[in-house]
Amino acid sequence: MLHFLTQLFGLFEKLLSTSPTVLATATNIDERINQFLDPFISALEKVIFFSIKLTDQVSLPIVVVWLFAAALIFTLYFKFLNFRGFKHAFDIIRGKYDEPDSDGEVSHFQALTAALSGTVGIGNISGVALAISLGGAGATFWMIMAGIFGMATKFVECTLAVKYRLVHENGVVSGGPMYYLWKGLKDIGREKTGKGLALAYAIPAVGCSFGGGCMIQINQATKQLINVTGGQNSFLYGQGWIFGLIVAIITGSIIIGGIKSIAKVTSRIVPLMVVVYLSAAFVVIGAHYQEIPSALLHIITEGFNPKAMAGGFIGVLVIGVQRAAFSNEAGIGQAATAHAPAKTEHPVSEGFVGMIEPFVDTVLVCTVTALVIILTNSFDPSATEGVELTSRAFASVISWFPIVLSIAVILFALSTMISCSYYGLKAWTYIFGENKVADLSYKLIFCIFVVIGSSLSLTAVFRFGDAMAFAMCAPNIIGLYWLAPIVKKDLKQYRQWIKDYDLKREKEMVKS
Length: 512
Prior knowledge:
Elements: H1 2-17, H2 20-23, H3 29-48, E1 51-53, E2 59-61, H4 62-77, H5 81-84, H6 86-93, H7 108-119, H8 122-135, H9 138-163, E3 166-167, E4 173-174, H10 177-187, H11 191-228, H12 240-255, H13 258-287, H14 292-303, H15 306-317, H16 336-339, H17 347-375, H18 386-395, H19 401-432, H20 436-455, H21 459-511
Antiparallel strand pairs: 1-2, 3-4
Helix pairs in contact: 1-3, 3-21, 4-9, 4-21, 6-17, 7-13, 7-17, 7-19, 8-15, 8-17, 8-18, 9-10, 9-14, 9-15, 9-17, 9-21, 10-11, 10-21, 11-12, 11-19, 11-20, 11-21, 12-19, 12-20, 13-17, 13-19, 19-20
């Protein structure tokens, strides 16, 4: 606590000592804002990204170990359910065990697409390129590992999100980490601890929704649109706020309707964009089919290179929110908020559905993106703009694809923003109460940040978004460890229900 207070007072000292003369050295508004925010963000990073020094050049943040260790522990604790439960998860998604008359607002499939829209997006397109540029081809190996083991963490989060959700009189559902930390720990006699952890989660969750969930998305979408419309000669160059205003209006019109409206949009956008994106990626990979075996071997061998391991972990799990393996948010807990409104009386069923997120987001989409970049030899150690790098990789085989990619980026960014606005809203209303004033005030502020994010550089935004996201994983995973035995007990009961349900259906089929 003393260390934290010292850091905090040091932060205020730096902010107060930042004179107008210093800010005047900045050449534009971006630089002015970055200079002003830098002391604040640097102080946050020192606290949140406390690191172990591996070499003179590389340090490993403790938070990375925290996330990866949790994924491994839950994989072992649930006896590799992330492998054994794969088929059952798809049975639920395709409606085999639907419970349409249960409490909730959306189907299993809609809940999945709403959650995927918050994870499949800019991170898969731009963040993977940056991760590989930092850690080399071996970063891809750690992406896949993080995704596979993260499925177990996601199972626990999504099960708890449904189990401890609040269903209001009007049928609207409030759920997510804030609620299972509060209500779940209350169930085991740790109410005060639960309330403290829930608040510690909710505050950075709001910040993350504005930073990583909003500003980063619109920023990268604006940059890609400017690039394909002429770069410095584009009518939007220097006027990105125009595009931001248009997107803010569209976003506002969608999020005003709540999770039902969001789910209707994402259930259409996400499958379409994933199919388009993967189809193009497979064309590029197919054009280099002879090099695929050597590329895969390179990924595996480099994955165990000390530089690749450090670079992979840092690039995949630290470089940014919703990028590479970290884009699936396993351990962060945000996506569980989208699963909470699923129509089901069996929370474990939604836990199975949630497991598919890291698989689609990381094992499938991120890995395919990585292969495109590796096979086209497009990664660049000096890269700072991931979207441009990925765009060049596709253009090396499909010359016109940057135009399609710009549309995909915009739609991915839009779907991510509307999902993240829901996550942030639930954290906001947890803090300020479930009422119309809190609801509308958050949505208005979110739309304002859409406009701001479209016209600023992403340096400070990325760093702030990362810090807020990682701040959430500490209280979330502490709660998950305490509540995992409850999930295990529910899993046993659920398996019995599935056996009875399947037996009943078999008997009905025999009769008919």
